[in-house]
Amino acid sequence: MQDAGFVKEAFAGIARRYVLTNHVLSLGTDVLWRIRTARLVASLKPRFVLDLATGSGDLAAAIRRRCPDAEILGMDFSVPMMREAQRQNFESLIAADALALPLADQCVDVITVAFGLRNMASWPRALAEMHRVLRPGGHLVILDFSIPSTPILRAPYLFYLKQVMPRIAGLLTGKKDAYDYLCGSIEKFPSGTKMESLLQECQFRKPVTRPLSLGIAALYSATRV
Ligand SMILES: C[S@@+](CC[C@H](N)C(=O)[O-])C[C@H]1O[C@@H](n2cnc3c(N)ncnc32)[C@H](O)[C@@H]1O
Question: Phi and psi of 132, rounded to 5°?
Answer without folding.
Answer: -60, -45
